[in-house]
Amino acid sequence: MNPSQRPPFGVLLANLGTPEAPTPKAVREYLAEFLWDKRVVDVPRPLWWLILHGVILRIRPGRVAKAYASVWGEHGSPLMTISRAQQQALKEALKAQYGCDIPVILAMTYGQPSMEQAGRELRATGVDKMLVLPLYPQFSSSTTAAVFDRLAKALKPCPHLPETRWINEYHQHPGYITALANSVREYWAEHGRGDRLLMSFHGIPQRYEDRGDPYPSQCRATAQALATELGLSEEQWLCSFQSRFGREEWVKPYTDFTLIDWGKAGVGRVDVISPAFSADCLETLEELDVENRETFQHNGGGEYHYIPCLNDRADHIDMMVQLVQNNTQGW
Ligand SMILES: C=CC1=C(C)c2cc3[nH]c(cc4nc(cc5[nH]c(cc1n2)c(C)c5CCC(=O)O)C(CCC(=O)O)=C4C)c(C)c3C=C
Ligand SMILES: [Fe+2]
Ligand SMILES: [Fe+2]
């Protein structure tokens, strides 16, 4: 392509979003936006408004801000820092692939950079074709569909929409499974290997699965594909679900209960990976690496090893390039 020409398309990378600061005020603002989305919490309004503002947002932000503060880095929230690194790495990889600058724009469903901001950035590039890549390997109405809603809302004032293609999920993409397997093998080469591999995914309420959310079954399929790729036997691995919110039943087995059982059973070493997250965040760095480690060890478990998310690993970025190439054919 002639460098003076308009790029053939833009890529919109989307993720959940994170608070602006590890303070109760910033966490309250973030949770107020996130937990008001009907895709996330479907309790009828106005009852949910009363519970959210009357109870949850008075208590939770203080506790959760402390958890954020414990993982906050020099450049901010881990989710934001890693998302920016992914954006930059993908930009460079696409330049190497296509020989020109392909705009790669980052947008968060909640907080900043917002979908509105991403829409403005995209218009400024002049591209008229856009590929949307939500960085959720498994589709859920609570995450992927929420990106769709927010993007559609942000594009409402546009008099002319870009031609848009959309990646729903990549939970069994060979490049994704290979990157996960590489990360486990590399971890084992450096730190030795545990007795069991726990693949812990963020959960959703059981009710959401019952009414057709494919997320838990896609998590199970990812876990099975990774176990097969690593050559694990049935007793060497388990797929579990973490991050419960509220009192209702969530999809099972629960990660914390599993680790209690394994600790009590005297499991000598467990390795834990979290393939629902494309980037390390509060739920991995604090809940999985700190809280659940304590749960396992206080119940008699031995060594506990947390294997990081794929983040900006080269093989993860390569997989994104493959997704872009396969979904922009003809552009
Ligand atoms: C990876 C996929 C995710 C699914 C599915 C998901 C569903 C889901 N989450 C909540 C409630 C909370 N999640 C929180 C944090 C959080 N969740 C995800 C991803 C998924 N959530 C990420 C990447 C993060 C971390 C964000 C960060 O800033 O690092 C939180 C906030 C923390 C807390 O208050 O405990 C809540 C709340 C529900 C209810 C839900 C499905 C219905
Ligand atoms: Fe969540
Ligand atoms: Fe959590």
From TrEMBL:
Pathway: Porphyrin-containing compound metabolism; protoheme biosynthesis; protoheme from protoporphyrin-IX: step 1/1. GO terms for biological process: heme biosynthetic process. The keyword Lyase applies. Fe(2+) binds at residues 202, 283. It is found in: Cytoplasm. Its main location: cytoplasm. Signal peptide: none annotated. InterPro entries: Ferrochelatase, Ferrochelatase_AS, Ferrochelatase_C, Ferrochelatase_N. GO terms for cellular component: cytoplasm. Keywords: Cytoplasm, Heme biosynthesis, Iron, Lyase, Metal-binding, Porphyrin biosynthesis. GO terms for molecular function: ferrochelatase activity; metal ion binding. It is an enzyme of class 4 (lyase). The keyword Protein biosynthesis does not apply. Belongs to the ferrochelatase family. PANTHER family: FERROCHELATASE, FERROCHELATASE, MITOCHONDRIAL. Catalyzes the ferrous insertion into protoporphyrin IX. This is Ferrochelatase. It comes from Thalassolituus pacificus. The lineage of its organism: Bacteria, Pseudomonadati, Pseudomonadota, Gammaproteobacteria, Oceanospirillales. The gene is hemH.
